[in-house]
Design goal:
The chain is mostly helical. The protein has 2 domains: about 1-145, no CATH class; about 150-370, no CATH class. It contains 18 helices and no strands. Helix 4 (about 65-85) runs antiparallel to helix 5 (about 90-115), helix 5 runs antiparallel to helix 6 and helix 12 packs antiparallel against helix 13 (about 285-295). It is elongated and about 90 Å long.
């Protein structure tokens, strides 16, 4: 029964909690994402564990230490395997040392209970030690797997983007402030390709890592190719980045190509232009943004139908200049901006003012412009 419960836990852990990591591990030998069935893969691993448990018990028979060594071995193997792409040798060595300590501690504890209770134990005295051992092994696997929340968000977001329902990708980790440049780039790609009004309508609703608008680009490393092809963004923007080309110049060149190929009087902004304008906003180049948004989307500016954050940026630009490049009117946004400035004026200390405004206006461009210099995501 002890081993059955342990194997059931490992199956659920691999097929549900760590299914994204198992998929990543299965993709490593191929160098690209592969189709797989997480439940079947977890079942095959658990069958392998069952053979390991049987083999270790046979090796140490008739001594009971075989059951203990086999249980710790399969738990160590699970944690070490899942941690392999995300942890260094120090972590792996620590996992092995803790596994050895668990074997030694559990063996001594069982000897102590044998001396105290003797061989004729009642049901509770037989159940309690095994339950404690199971709990310790569960904790060892859970705490020993070196996969952070951000790693999970990256894996699950990329998996959703590859699926037939990419909108689900934005639901991954939306309530958490933890984010990486890779996760931000994946989410931005999602917004640019699925939102009816484009990237400029939602981009500042997500945590943004430090580093400026360069974070909009996918990292071009082996891990990115296993998650989601970086060439997907190249195809979306319509051009390959040239060697040594600054990222902002690259975005502008792609925007110019898109402007020449398609009219910009459509309701939905074009993705290459979206990336360029959002890059200007992230870098707080507000004057350049005002010039460019009016050049690329004169129709949307004139009719007052700009994406949400473009409109917020133009309202801020209008407040900064007595003669702004673009006069954009939106009564609701202007009223919210007045509330934002009035709330900020109630506190003089920078830190309390920043925190107060973040609670109410943390997803506005105004808060990003004033306080988001180091990003809004937690490292």
């Amino acid at each position: 029964m002890f081993h059955l419960l342990l194997l059931l836990f490992l199956y659920l852990y691999l097929s549900v909690s760590q299914a994204d990591v198992v998929h990543y591990l299965c993709s490593l030998p191929w160098g690209e994402p592969v189709a797989f069935r997480p439940k079947l893969t977890a079942l095959l691993l658990v069958v392998l564990y069952a053979f390991i448990l049987w083999g270790v018990r046979r090796l140490f028979a008739p001594r009971k230490v075989g059951k203990l060594i086999g249980s710790v071995a399969v738990c160590w193997l699970t944690a070490a395997l899942l941690s392999a792409p995300f942890a260094g040798w120090v972590w792996q060595l620590g996992l092995l040392l803790v596994a050895l300590l668990l074997v030694g501690a559990d063996w001594r504890w069982n000897l102590h209970l044998l001396r105290r209770w003797g061989a004729g134990r009642n049901r509770w005295q037989k159940f309690m030690p095994r339950a404690v051992e199971l709990l310790v092994l569960f904790l060892y696997v859970g705490l020993g797997t070196s996969v952070s929340d951000t790693d999970h968000y990256e894996l699950r977001t990329a998996r959703a983007l590859r699926s037939s329902r990419p909108q689900e990708a934005y639901e991954v980790g939306t309530v958490h402030l933890a984010a990486s440049s890779r996760l931000f780039a994946l989410r931005s790609y999602l917004l640019a390709t699925t939102q009816p009004r484009g990237l400029g309508d939602k981009i500042f609703q997500q945590p943004i890592p430090a580093g400026g608008s360069a974070q909009l680009l996918f990292p071009r490393d082996d891990r990115q190719r296993l998650l989601f092809s970086p060439d997907s963004l190249t195809r979306l923007l319509g051009s390959e980045r040239r060697p040594g080309e600054p990222h902002l110049a690259y975005f502008r060149r792609c925007a110019e190509q898109a402007r020449q190929q398609r009219p910009t009087t459509v309701e939905r902004p074009l993705a290459p232009i979206d990336y360029y304008l959002c890059a200007l906003l992230i870098d707080r180049r507000l004057d350049a943004f005002a010039l460019e948004v009016n050049r690329y989307y004169p129709h949307l500016v004139a009719t007052g139908r700009l994406p949400f954050y473009y409109a917020q940026a133009l309202v801020l630009h209008g407040r900064q200049h007595s003669h702004p490049v673009v006069r954009y009117r939106d009564a609701a946004i202007e009223a919210n901006f007045r509330d934002y400035t009035e709330m900020g004026d109630t506190l003089r200390e920078p830190t309390p003012r920043r925190n107060l405004l973040r609670r109410s206006y943390g997803e506005t461009y105004w808060w990003w412009y004033d306080y988001g210099q180091s990003g809004t995501a937690q490292p």
